[in-house]
Amino acid sequence: MFIDGRATPNGQVIRSDVCLIGGGAAGIALALTLARRGVDVVLVESGGLELDQATQQLYDGEVIDNDYPPLRTSRLRYLGGTTNHWGGACRPLDPFEFEAHDWVPHSGWPIRSSDLEPYYDATREMLHLPEPHFHFDANETNSNDHVPLFAPGPTGEPDFEPVVWRRTQPGPLRMRPAYAQALRTTRHLRCLLHTNITALIANNERSAIVRARAATLDGRRFAFEARNFVLCAGAIENARMLLLSDQKMGGGIGNQHGLVGRYFADHGGIDLGEVHFFDSAPTIREESYARSKFEPGKPEQGDVVGFASSAIARERDRLLGFSMMCFPTRLSRTPGGIRSLSKAAGGGQASTDEGPSRVMRLVGVFEKSPNPESRVQLDTRTDALGLRKVEVDLNVQQHDRASVHAHARHFAAELARTGHGRVRLIALDDFPWTPLAGHHAGTARMSDDPKHGVTDRDGRVHGMGNLYVTGGALFPTVGWQNPTFTIVALALRLADTLSTSSR
Ligand SMILES: Cc1cc2nc3c(=O)[nH]c(=O)nc-3n(C[C@H](O)[C@H](O)[C@H](O)COP(=O)(O)OP(=O)(O)OC[C@H]3O[C@@H](n4cnc5c(N)ncnc54)[C@H](O)[C@@H]3O)c2cc1C
Predict the structure, then answer these.
(1) Could you tell me if the CB of 16 is within 6 A of ligand 1?
(2) Does the beta carbon of 29 sit less than 6 angstroms from any atom of ligand 1?
(3) Does ligand 1 have an atom closer than 6 angstroms to the CB of 483?
(4) For ligand 1, what atom is nearest to the CA of residue 78?
(5) Number of other CB atoms surrounding residue 107 within 10 Å
(6) pLDDT tens track of the chain, all 503 residues?
(7) Distance, CA of 403 to chain centre
(8) 487 contact partners, CB below 8 Å, separation of at least 6
(9) Who has the most CB within 10 Å: 7, 18, 139, 237?
(10) CA Rg, the chain, in Å?
(11) How far is ligand 1, taken at its centre, from the CA of residue 361, in Å?
């Protein structure tokens, strides 16, 4: 059932088993799963069924790094959340990304890939991903003469492996149109639209949340009470809400060790240069392009194939996660936020080739290391609800850049070594770290130790019996894989925890 918060009487208290805050990918997956199991759910969503500027403006905030796009354009504040303009490319984190790496300070998840795998089938279904696996399979290509692009190196394994990102079908899944009907008709589910949570209020013992305060842009004030509360408002807004909830707990809820908002991360992504493939390597299109089913004019359809550094190579060279895609030159400008060569390097040669080409753009997507100085903090300026806005500092480190240099140079060397081609890299010394600006993560990271994480392995805020966080905020490290598949899997795992503790 949809309820317009603007028609809710002042002072009303709305009660439920579970109160979910934010109706994007995570909130919708969690709400429908819980309600279908008979749990009484209220989903509180700031926006309505369509984008409206006044609500979207509530996402305004400051960014310290000039390369970081404005916060009010990279996220969407209405039902369906940022899936209303995402690309729909999905891939789970590989098991390696969950492990602690001694060359990456603060790395390591408290859970393993095997803890999330039981939820992958339901995640695929929720995200409309028909393919049952994420392995690159040469037999799926159109080629009869498949030749691997990268030969094994001294380790016996190639340093770069072909990898697949599956795409939601038939195009990027917009969760608002896809799930509006289910949200409207599923029993046990009330969806409060145009309703902003403004603060969480703790009990006197500061051990649980008793109430969530709500406001509408036209001045209504009411509240929610529930056995359990879950923040599903995206990594930046989840941190903001914890920090704003300082009525009884100085510094905000869950912030006893000053960790809320820290370790903010986003993937970097730039056009690294161009690859010239030699005629002796006729299979590049099968491995990196034709298999992707990219078609001119339909850049948002079809799976994507690229390359990622192998775990062995990363461990040997002590590097962060790194992946690359090759695009025909005229498609190279289509991925959101990725710069073209000429913009990145101050005027490189762009091919005018109109079709699949022997010269292809090389686009890299790379991991940012977990850094406590990468932060979401409260600003002194306020929004239309009188709430303090955020200030975001991505704070990219020299070793983040060094890792990109090393990977890109190694990729070029490997291609030359195997005789398949040459790479003309951009000037990497001062390349712009262009964030993808939508893969927000890390602001309420999981850890078994409250001194190292805001949330525990279940996503429960340390010290709070009934407050959970879900979404990218939980990620201790982000790997190179797109985040939303893991975000939905985490939400579905949380549904199991809440199904038993909420009734
Ligand atoms: C341009 C772009 C392309 C992307 N492409 C991909 C891709 O190809 N693959 C991929 O995996 N990921 C991609 N992403 C990232 C993906 O969109 C996010 O990972 C995903 O949407 C996060 O889901 P979420 O539910 O955590 O947050 P969101 O989807 O952002 O949802 C948060 C919800 O919370 C609501 N909300 C916020 N504050 C409040 C409040 N105070 N009270 C009530 N409600 C509130 C918002 O209105 C919103 O509906 C992309 C992002 C961008 C920007």
Answers:
(1) no
(2) no
(3) yes
(4) 47
(5) 18
(6) 999 999 999 999 999 999 999 999 999 999 999 999 999 999 999 999 999 999 999 999 999 976 788 899 889 999 999 999 999 999 999 999 999 999 999 999 999 999 999 999 999 999 999 888 888 766 555 444 444 566 666 667 788 888 888 989 888 999 999 999 999 999 999 999 999 999 999 999 999 999 999 999 999 999 999 999 999 999 999 999 999 999 888 899 999 999 999 999 999 988 888 888 775 444 444 444 444 455 555 556 677 778 899 999 999 999 999 998 877 665 433 333 233 332 332 222 333 333 344 677 888 999 999 999 999 999 999 999 999 999 999 999 989 989 998 999 998 898 888 777 888 888 766 667 777 779 999 999 999 999 999 999 999 999 999 999 999 999 999 999 999 999 999 999 999 999 988 77
(7) 21
(8) 25, 26, 470, 471, 472
(9) 237
(10) 23
(11) 28
CA of 8 to the centre of ligand 1 (A): 26
How many Å from the N-terminal Cα to the C-terminal Cα in the chain?
A: 20
Determine whether the shortest distance from the Cβ of 357 to ligand 1 is under 6 A.
Answer: no
Which pair of structure tokens corresponds to residue 339? 């710069």
C-alpha of residue 271 to centroid of ligand 1, in Å: 24
Task: Answer yes or no: is the C-beta of 55 below 6 A from any ligand 1 atom.
Answer: no
CB within 8 Å of 332: residues ≥ 6 apart: 271, 338, 340, 341, 360, 361, 363
Side chain identity at residue 288, one-letter code = S
Backbone angles phi, psi at 224, to 5 degrees: -125, 140
One DSSP character per residue, 183-232 reads: HHH-TTEEEEES-EEEEEEE-TTSSSEEEEEEE-TTS-EEEEEEEEEEE-
Q: Tell me which residue has its CA closest to atom 50 in ligand 1.
A: 86
Considering only CA atoms, which residue is closest to atom 19 of ligand 1? 484
Residue to substitute in 90, 484, 488, 490 for testing ligand 1 pocket (most ligand atoms within 8 angstroms of CB): 484
pTM: 0.92
CA of 76 to the centre of ligand 1 (A): 7
Is residue 442 within 8 Å of 357, Cβ to Cβ?
Answer: no
How far is residue 413's CA from residue 430's CA, in Å, rounded to a whole number?
20
CA of 45 to the centre of ligand 1 (A): 12
* CA-to-CA dists, residue 275 to 163, 294, 348, 426, angstroms: 18, 18, 13, 11
Pocket lining: 237 vs ligand 1, CB cutoff 6 Å: yes
Instruction: Name beta bridge partners: 435.
Output: 268
Q: Which residue has the tokens 């303009």?
A: 85
- Mapped onto helix, strand or coil, the DSSP state of residue 404 is helix
Residue 81 CA to ligand 1 centre (angstroms): 5
Please provide the DSSP assignment of 92-122 as one string.
PPPHHHHS--TTSTT---SS-HHHHGGGHHH
pLDDT at 296 (0 to 100): 53
Phi, psi values for residue 143, rounded to 5°: -90, 145
- Which of 83, 86, 165, 231 to mutate to test ligand 1, by most ligand atoms within 8 A of the CB atom? 86
DSSP state of 218: T
